[in-house]
What does this fold into?
Amino acid sequence: MSAVIQLVKVHPNDNVAVATQPLVPGTVINTENLTVEEAVPAGHKVALTSVDKGQVIIKYGFEIGEATENIRQGEHVHSHNLKTKLNGTETYSYHPVAASQGPQLPRQQFFGYRRENGKVGIRNEIWIINTVGCVNRAAERIADECSRRFTGECDGFRAFTHPFGCSQLGDDLDDTRTILSSLASHPNAGAVLIIGLGCENNQLASMLPQVDKPEHRVKFYNAQEVENEIEEGVSAVLQLLTVIAGDKREPIDASELVLGMKCGGSDAFSGITANPTVGRVTDLMCQLGGSVILTETPEMFGAEQLLMNRAKNENVFQEFNHLITAFKDYFIAHNQPIYENPSPGNKAGGLTTLEEKSLGAVQKGGQSTIQSILNYGEPRKEKGLSLLQAPGNDAVSATALAASGAHIVLFTTGRGTPLGFPVPTIKISSNSDIANKKPHWIDFNAGKVLEGTSIDKCASELLHHCLAVASGQQTCNEKNGSHEIAIWKRGVTL
It folds into this structure.
């Protein structure tokens, strides 16, 4: 029987390691030739060497902050003795790093829906999208009624409600309109019903021209202009069902699949198990000619230079530079600290500084070349890896991924969440405990990396799972009926 691994040293140059289980004072770690000096929770860091006040702490082979007091070998390293070194905006330079090229992979396929406009969907659902929050309940009632009357006639009826669409101006209103029209354009929706109220800022007449979908797959009306908005909606959906009835799955090359990468409720194992596994899937997808979108801009802070060096050219580097700087300016404009992160849940799980969190988070991007930078709500155009402007908030960033064209969101977590999004959401646990505790939340357990499974094997299994989901296998969020959207609110409310 192999010995239980108690500490994980991520990189040979690290001066801390991560406890895989709670450690009590006096625990001897023979592999590191140290004795644990104080209680260390699972997921938290242990000093491998003595570190003087002001010296740097290294994890993943990079600095994650500096010691605020002298730290002895074997002591617990966390918020009480470690702080970020990040402060204000930075100046970046481009030092290109060539992406590592893996072996050529055999072609792979999934079974999806080929749309008339050339797009590919992995679900044949009818989406009900409202222009304004005033008709949220109407959209929900229509979806519920259609689910009752037309069970089994498509892959599902989804109402994506939100509180916006009125009392908004300028860029803020544009963001709402862009996200909603992009969702209406998504190929996972075989058809879409768009409901307005009639008096809102986000008028149907302004939104409809932005919807990229054949006219016969779109129905719309203003609730103020019809006698019974619920029956009007049900009748419209019935007509749309006749349109999508002929849609059939067919073999589609994996190069047409788009994956969105996201993490939420991270712990210290996220950067050791789940995120590197997802990063390997990113590289595999790029090798297959497919597309990956990585977002959560603030969770690149502290690790952004590593990503910038993988930009395919100077222009992409400059766009990335602008993305990062603009996002930091957004924090400053609102008189908020740029580096007020990780969250309380992250800290409870062992993450201390933003550098540490970011170095773990960006691993979801693998080692592939960054082909393009996408603004919030902008559709993906380039194959390969793209970076998308969006905040770290789970619902906002995952909605943005779907709006930019992701068929599936791969969501890594060490704490767990039942939240699901417009497209199938594969929840990937960083540890086996949460996978065993919440099997109705978690779709894939990357915690088995800590139990001896290689990241390559884990990634291969996850890619296979993605293709199965793309072919119709339901995720936990689909089984649980969790399909939420959230729109980034950046402006004033009238």
